[in-house]
Amino acid sequence: MLVELNKTTYAARVKRIYEAWNNASKSEDYSSIADVDALFLVAGDPASEDEPMRKGTCFQQWLLGYEFPSTLFLFQKERIAVLCSASKSKILAQIQNVPGIPALEIYAQAKGKDSANDALPNFLSLYKSAKRAGSLLKETHTGKLVSEWQKLVAESDPKPEMVEMGPAVSSLMAVKDAEELKLVQTAATLTSTLLKHHVAPKLESILDRESKISHEMLSVQIEARLGSGEGDNAKGPDMKVWGKAKGLDNIDWQSAEFCYPPIIISKSSKTGYDLRYTIDSTEDNIAHKGVLLVSFGLRYKSYSTNVGRTFIVDPNPAQEAQYNLLLSLQSELLSFMKEGVQARDVYQHAVSFIKEKNPELEKHFVKTVGFGMGMEFRDATYVLSPKNSRALKANMTLNLGLGFSDLTDSNGQKYALHLVDTVRIDTNKAVLLTDGVKHSKETLFFLDSASGEDDVKAKKPPARPKANGSPAKAKAVGGKILRNPRRAAQDDVHQTAATRLIEHQKEIHQRLQEDGLARFSEGGGGIAGKEGKGWKKFQSYKGEGALPDEVEKLRIFVDRKAQTVILPIHGFAVPFHINTIKNASKNDEGDFTYLRINFQTPGQLAGKKEDTPFEDPDATFIRSVSYRSPDGHRFDSLVKQITDLKKEANKREQQKKEMADVIEQGALIELKGRRPYKMQEAFIRPALDGKRLPGEVEIHQNGVRYQSVGNQRVDVLFSNVKHLFFQPCDHELLVIVHMHLRAPIMIGKKKTFDVQFFREATDVQFDETGNRKRKHRYGDEDEIEMEQQERKRRAMLNKEVKAFAEKVAEAASNSLGETLELDIPFRELSFEGVPFRTSVRLQPTTECLVHLTDTPFLVITLADIEIASLERVQYGLKQFDLVLIFKDFTKPPHHINSISSTQMDDVKNWLDSVDIPMSERPVNLNWGPLMKHVNENPFEFFREGGWAFLGGAGGAEDTQSSSSGEESEFAVESDDFVSESSSDDESDFGDGSGSDETASDFGDGSESEGEDWDELERKAAKADLKRNEGRRKGSDESDDDDRPKKKKAAPKAASKAAPKAVPKGKANGAKGKR
After folding, report:
1. 37 and 106 inside one domain
2. How far is the first Cα of the chain from the last one, in angstroms, to the nearest whole number?
3. Chain segment 43-68, per-residue pLDDT in tens
4. Keywords of this protein's UniProt record, alphabetized (predicted)?
5. Are strands 132-135 and 161-164 parallel, antiparallel or unpaired?
6. In a domain? residue 161
7. What span, in angstroms and rounded, lies between the C-alpha atoms of 992 and 1009?
């Protein structure tokens, strides 16, 4: 049976109904049903999704666990009668004979095709037997059964007097049992998780970046965290958000839903600041200053919770005081609300608290401070208003909503504040069920005021990230900072930048270690999600009949079609698939030629293939087979055929492996009704086959299409776009719109993760040969005019292409239901490095590190980086390397080599600003074996200290300063390494460049200013003359003996080692080399 009713819960709640009914005269809560003979519950057709849940529907679900539309319930003292369809009667039959409670009598109507039965008349006679019946009179129902029933009741006489039983039903459901409280807590956890890990960070990002997004779009994006779409396009819950909460592992996501569409309000909303839950978010774009109100609620298995928050950008002192008053008021009411307190006393206590703290705000205070919650989102029976005398009871859940409305700021702008949470009433206080993101440091954002009063411009602080990605903002005592400095910068004056960096890195490393232990604690000895190689079975032929005719000759035969080598063994033709063969070799000995075929077997130390799996490694394997023949030419041919077949098989396997992650994109949905936005005269990379000609890029409903002149098309769907970049043509020859994909696609015969559309910004596109001014003007004025025109052209091109890129981001956001941010590289943070084979300019963006100008492209998502290792960090070296280790340990680390040491501080500051842990080392590590060790047991790796062996950001410096002897040894080794790996640096300047550096560091003051080579030669000659005179006197013999001997006099010695004579010719040679 698909639907199973809980008999225990049903029995307990029926008992509660009858106990309350029998003692109704003794309790004010149930006084409305004290004098009734029956309780009558009507359920018609289901309500639409836009309507709130009816009290009768909530009562059904509370009693039975499910909603039964088109059903009538009649509770009498001795029985419970139900009129329903035949299919529903089968489900309700489960609870028909539950002991200890009145029996359930089911009146099942006939099916549509069958003739009518007497179920309805019999149920009517029971109904007419009551003189006074309680019902939910305020509810209106529709449907075939309801229409028939209303018609019969209207015609019948006598009929019972009807009274309203809504307050009694509310009282029955108000106090929650243990099972209900678990469901309410789950709903509260869902609501708090969404607030802390999606809504608040999303709003902060929108305000910081000043993103253009409407209130309605943000509301839709928040709703999409529970899943969106239908059929093949359906998306499940966003586990990036829900996975951050504890206790949500066994959630039935089908039972989770929003109580109402999330409400987003800012000062640009057409509806103004309306604190009701029945309004909708408007289509206006969110204002990036002023007050923002957010409220939403989640329901789990019909039990509701709600939360509301206020965010203020650049608040004035009055707004700060008002918001802090709301926080204080909430704390006060939580301690005041407890079992036995009347609803009106709660409101009066709140008003008294405001009068005491700030009497002027009393007139702006909300008219109610909350209402009862449960299956019904808003239970009007338990509204916390000044007139409601009902008492609160333990284990009731309420929506505590505090706020001020119709406030006015100094500019005459209206605004409102609210603070909403779900609470549970206890015997001596109220307990928060929803919590998070409400303290002023989390909800108040400060900007640097541009008003005339503040003439002092503070310096911008280093950005602090919230994760490896978008830079999060530094926190201040009163709130957060958006794009501007903190108010109390005096705290940082006493700390140097280096000290702050080291302290921050310690925090990041500690968090990295904790996250690593938490991430792998459950799996323990896993291999970071990497599946080991599996045993592959190969089938050459399906049966003996499929063997080729050549086997009858019992000769070695290579079957290319079946990828098999057939060998004669003891009079039988035995096929061996080419994948079981390792190699084949031929050897001539005397008159015979020997052919040896080696097979893949376990235990062979074959480098990377030594971990090749076998189905049964303990079985008996044939290592090799040898044949002898006088026909050497035939064996030559066989070896060649086997070798070629093996190469083809390896190549085919490699291609299959490379194409394993290539996806087949869905169909592009073209725009209808209007022309799509286009970027004309654009080129694409990777380039298409054929002649290089420009094409057009069009924005459609769910993706973009590039169409070349030759009618070649490339479609990229928004759902496959991970990052979108725009790179202007400032200091570049190209203006670029770049898409980095989640999964690779095929363009022609090329697999690619990146698709780029660009336009050229060179003078070649503009023909100036016909300009008459060229005949008469050849001076600087003409050159200046040309430069100005070039700047204008570039500015226009940047503006045009950027507008197109923003249209792409907007279309993608509308299609996906979540914002796709347009990322622009920060050229001021760029540095030179070698990520592949050539030195290129690498530019950080908000979420990535990129190189987009030339192929191969580089796009590294910062959120995917586990740790960064700076290697070859030694005093005297001109370059260092940067190794990025990814959170997915199965991916090999990415090396960026030969970064100039002059940019080391910039790189370190950037890495620290985006919360990436880093370490420094004087030498390079061998990352291959290291990552293999990590993958074998990540949990054990983190249990033994994780990345602590790398040291922190200052680890290399500490190590070098601790032992000067070791430092000199490292210097020698690293010099040798540099001479091999970075020959470009050394070949240009030779050892002479080292001479300059050493002289400036250790020479006297005059040398540090940088003399020319002639001056250095004169000084060297003068030093030689003095030394020779000293030797003749014999005064320096002991000193010379004690000095270390050099292998060969180099130009370096001219400035560094003054005691040793340097021939003039060598100095001249050094000069010539320079």
Report:
1. yes
2. 91
3. 998 887 777 888 999 999 999 998 99
4. Chromosome, Coiled coil, DNA damage, DNA repair, DNA replication, Nucleus, Transcription, Transcription regulation
5. parallel
6. yes
7. 17
Cα 555 to Cα 592, 622, 628, 629, 638: the distances in Å are 17, 19, 12, 11, 11
Coil, strand, or helix at residue 1071?
helix
Residue 173, classified by CB atoms within 10 Å of its CB into exposed (0-12), middle (13-18) or buried (19+), is buried
Give dist(CA 353, CA 364) in Å, integer: 14
> Do the beta carbons of residue 387 and residue 404 sit within 8 Å?
no
Count of domains forming the chain:
5
Q: Which residues pair with 371 in a beta bridge?
A: 399
Q: What is the pLDDT at residue 1037?
A: 43
Kindly provide the residue ranges of all beta strands, DSSP E only, lying in 259-388, ordered along the sequence.
Answer: 263-265, 290-300, 303-313, 370-373
| pLDDT given at position 825 | 92
The two structure tokens encoding residue 197: 């890990």
Alpha carbon distance 872, 384 (integer Å): 68
Structure tokens at 131: 């003189």
Report, as an integer, the average pLDDT of 259-265: 94
pLDDT of residue 604: 63
**Residue of 274, 268, 335 whose CA lies nearest to 308:** 274
In a domain, 999, yes or no: no
User: Could you write out the DSSP letters of every residue in 507-557?
Assistant: HHHHHHHHHHHHHHTTTSS--TTPPPP------S-SSGGGS-GGGGGT--E
Q: Is the pLDDT of residue 462 over 50?
A: no
Q: Which residues pair with 750 in a beta bridge?
A: 747
Confidence of residue 419 (pLDDT cuts 50, 70, 90): very high
* Cis peptide bond upstream of 158, omega within 30: yes
Q: Is 1009 left (phi over 0), alpha (psi -120 to 50) or beta?
A: alpha
Cα(679)–Cα(697) distance, integer angstroms: 5
Q: What would the mean pLDDT of 953-962 be, rounded to a whole number? A: 45
Q: What is 480-508 written as a DSSP string?
A: EESSS--S-GGGGTTS-HHHHHHHHHHHH
Q: Among candidates 373, 438, 366, 440, which has minimal Cα distance to 402? A: 366
Round to whole Å and give the CA distance between 916 and 505.
Answer: 8
Mean of all residue pLDDT scores within the chain = 81
In this structure, are 204 and 332 located in the same domain? yes
Say which DSSP state 686 is in: S
129 and 12 belong to one structural domain? yes
CA distance 14 to 27: 18
Residue 190 within a domain: yes
Are residues 860 and 804 part of one domain? no
Q: Which of 19-23, 479-483, 522-526 has the highest mean pLDDT?
A: 19-23
Specify the DSSP class assigned to residue 23. Answer: T
Amino acid at 422: T
Taking a C-beta distance cutoff of 8 angstroms, is the pair 126, 106 a contact? Answer: no
Residues 74 and 191 in one domain: no
CA atoms within 13 A on the CB side of 1065: 0
Radius of gyration of the chain (CA): 40
Residue 283 CB burial class (10 angstroms; 0-12, 13-18, ≥19): exposed
Asked if 624 and 601 touch (Cβ cutoff 8 Å), the reply is no
Residues 551-596 have pLDDT tens digits of 888 889 999 888 899 999 988 889 999 888 889 999 988 889 999 9
Instruction: Give the count of beta carbons closer than 10 Å to the beta carbon of residue 254.
Output: 8
According to the model, what pLDDT value does residue 985 have? 41
Same domain for 163 and 123:
yes
- Contact assessment for residue 679 and residue 659, using Cβ atoms and an 8 Å cutoff: no
**Same-domain pairing of 643 and 713:** no
Domain end marker among 948, 968, 995: 948
Alpha-carbon span 1041 to 1051, nearest angstrom:
22
Residues 910 and 941 in one domain: yes
Beta strands in 52-131 (DSSP E): 71-76, 79-84, 103-108
Largest CA distance in the chain: 143
Range of the structural domain that residue 184 is part of: 178-229+236-445
Neighbours of 1005 (CB within 10 A): 6
